[in-house]
Structure formats: C-alpha cells, structure tokens
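ok so i was messing around last nite and threw this chain in just to see what happens. nothing serious, just curious
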Amino acid sequence: MYNFLQRLSAITSFAMSTLMVMALLISVTTPLIPSSPTHSVTLRSVQTTTGRRVDAFDKKSRSAEYAQLTFDVNADLTSMFNWNTKLLFAYITADYRAPGFETNRVVVWDRIIRNRRQAKLRLRKHQNKYLFRNYALTFKGVEAANLTLHINPVPYLGLMYDKTATSIPLSLPQAAGPAGKAVR
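result:
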C-alpha cells in the first residue's frame, strides 16, 4: 500500500492547495467589502515665499518659490478597517499643471493609521509636512491646481489600491519677495 512519506506528501499537497485557494479568495474579495468613510479637506490659506535655505549645497533653493499651505482635515475612516486591513496610509497631494511639465503631483502631508482608534482625523490649522516647490522654481503659469486627499488601505493579504477621497481647488499666489509673503 502507501508508506508514511507518501501519505505525508499527499496531506501536505492538499493542505497547500487549500491554503492557496483560500489566499486567492481573500485577495479577490477584500476590495469588495463595502466601506463608507466620511472626509473633508478645507484650505484655510496659501502663502508663498521666495528664498528659503533648505539645503546648503542647493544654490537654487535660495531663489525658488515655496508654498506653505494651512488646511483642516476631518475624516472618519473607521469603516475602512476590516479583518484584512493592516493599516491605512492617508496623504494629501497638490496636483497642478505648469508650463513645460504636464502633470505634477507633490505630497504635502501624510499619516499612517494603524488601528480604528487613530482612524478619526481632526486636524485644525495644520500645515504641510513637506516642502512644496515647483520644478521651474516659480509658480508663474501654474494652472488648474487641486488639493487631493488619498487613502491607501494596506491589506494583510492581497493587492493595495488607491482610493481618492476628496479634491478641492487650490490657487497659488505669486511670491512678494524674500521678506514679504503674499496671502490668498
């Protein structure tokens, strides 16, 4: 009949095949689980300034224009947590078009949300976490700018996907100079 190793091989093959089918079903059905997060982003002010020394070796940073955004974020993302959600990655981007560069996307703020307790975001008068500078070193000619909140659920098993939550228009004023700031 069958010896011990043949029986062990058959059981192991069956167990691995079953686990693979289960993993495939989990990864396919997780994005189909309904979630209804509530979120809003409100832009309070936009300030641009010229000549910020960021890097001692980057001489262009002294003459570049930088934008400082002040915004509010209200979001309840608890419904996005399910049995297959490891964490949520929320971030805000500034998307705009500039002469010479068709599409530009700059991440200005991000947060890793590890559990349901952290999934309620109430940020007031929050400023961008990362520098916002155009490749052309000036914001002249920038048109059709948007501030967009993105949410990426990171599953334990399966594919990551991007969920664009909300988008609001953004207008960038011209900088008044190194000492002064132009405010929208």
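not much to say yet. Confidence is low (pLDDT under 50) at residues 179-184.
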